What does this fold into?
Amino acid sequence: MANSSSGESIIRRVVRLVGAFDDAHRTMSVAALARRSGLPVTTTYRLVDELLGEGLLEREPNAEVRVGTRLWELVSRSSRMVGLREAALPFMEDVQSVVQHSTTLGILDSDEVLYIERIGSRDSMVDITKVAGRLPVHGTSSGLVLLAYSPPAYQDLFLSRSLEKFTDATLTEPTELRRHLAGIRQRGFASMPGIIVPESSGIAVPVFGRANTVVAALSVVVPRNEENPATRVPVLMTAARGISRALGWRGELKGALRQSNGNF
Amino acid sequence: MANSSSGESIIRRVVRLVGAFDDAHRTMSVAALARRSGLPVTTTYRLVDELLGEGLLEREPNAEVRVGTRLWELVSRSSRMVGLREAALPFMEDVQSVVQHSTTLGILDSDEVLYIERIGSRDSMVDITKVAGRLPVHGTSSGLVLLAYSPPAYQDLFLSRSLEKFTDATLTEPTELRRHLAGIRQRGFASMPGIIVPESSGIAVPVFGRANTVVAALSVVVPRNEENPATRVPVLMTAARGISRALGWRGELKGALRQSNGNF
DNA sequence: CACAGCGTTACCGATGAACGGGAATCAGAA
DNA sequence: TTCTGATTCCCGTTCATCGGTAACGCTGTG
It folds into this structure.
């Protein structure tokens, strides 16, 4: 693909370029961009020029570049995330005003939990989630909820892999995990203390979409030493039902509702 | 640019493709995408394949395509918008809980107001703004606030163009507009009834960034027949100050603070 | 002042990926 | 079955892409 000696298509290179920006590197010089993306300098300049022309990148007053407004606009006009975010936000604010720690909304994407919204104290010590950040499925209560309501075939596939043990409390044994997943489906929530960092504890519940499938997980993170985490569950449950209804959910038609990843 | 007979670069074509999606067309068949984007069918299939490979587009169960998760993720990790949005949201919720109609946050982008956040009733009759939607500067109170605090050179340039008259109340005369802009700077807010649609009235105040420049406008839209719109101003003002402070604003150092579009 | 280091712009020849028309295949509707 | 539309496959042409090299401009330093 493409005339490149490295054999990469333009599109992949553009992804490399945009991907070189992150929270800690929101702007940089073109040369720095070339280094971070690993592309030849000349090539980087040529591509950046084009991207600037389209507004996908923008030039700062100090000549550095950053991700452009137009790119944000393109995505925000059509992405699947947007509807979910908009439906969820008011309810998340409600939860946040009661729980006070940190409230997140996550979906399942390529075997990880992708957090699409988070509110709470900016640098909460007990919460390592970020918007657009990813965490492993078996290391988060959100992930376990999403997994619990996934199609059995997907669960089998996932559990067949070897899983990293983050803390003493992390579950990695397939059979043990299966038992937990069953428990989550039965109770309707997951409460997992210290499975990724010892100090924090997550409680998560499922959010349903139009097709009665699970499309996201709503979760709060609290310090592990909190008296009784389960007292948080009712708040989360009602909020999750509110979000589900805003997404077009018609109430549980009874019966186990599996699979996620569908439309909503 | 690219081997195309139409003489367009790949990047531009990708923008055309992604831009073909909007709120009303979140998914479509590849052939439909080719029609909407105006690209040759074969070319569209080839590009879509590549984009699918990168995760920038995704395939629906019914074989249609939509904007992909990965694209959202790339943008949300680095865009300038994100910080602004996160800082503003809590305060916007506060305003919304009091004013009840519809609260928006807009920035100035290529001679238009780009709304980067909006909360309120989903299909409010009196408000035509959408997230990632655009409206003309002189047709919105947000736009006039942003213009009022822009560098004089930019104001001159803007006012030298001929402006569309949307309603009887729309201001299009340069001198008249200048007088209004001065009034906005003096009072610290804009209240413009029916300048884009007759039924609604907007009230907007500036949001300041770290460099003491105006980076956004916070606004509420209310029905025009409301008794006294100016009673909304204090609520907006305090919220805007809160947002500004969250952005690193250090309080007004006195004196007129002009120009926007800087970092924040 | 000369020098070094870095970011940026300009030039250019070879090459092979991109291009897109056309035809075949497939799926669903009439 | 036939028709309509979406999708995939094929293939020869061609020109945009690629990236090395070199020059330019700026800043700080010995």
Q: What stands out?
A: The longest helix of chain A spans residues 80-99.
